[in-house]
Amino acid sequence: MHKILLVEDDIDYGTVMQQYLEISGFEVIWLTTPENTLDMLKKEKFSLAVLDIMLPVKDGFSLSKEIQMLYPALPFLFLTAKNQNIDRLMGLKSGAADYISKTCDPEELKLRIDNILKYAESAQTQQYQLGNYSFHPFQLKLTHPKESFRLTERERDLLLLLIQNNNKIVHRNVILEKIWHSSDYFSGRSMDVFITRLRKYFIHDDNIQITSIRGIGFEIDLALR
Question: Which sequence positions fall in the DNA-binding region (predicted)?
Answer without folding.
Answer: 125-222
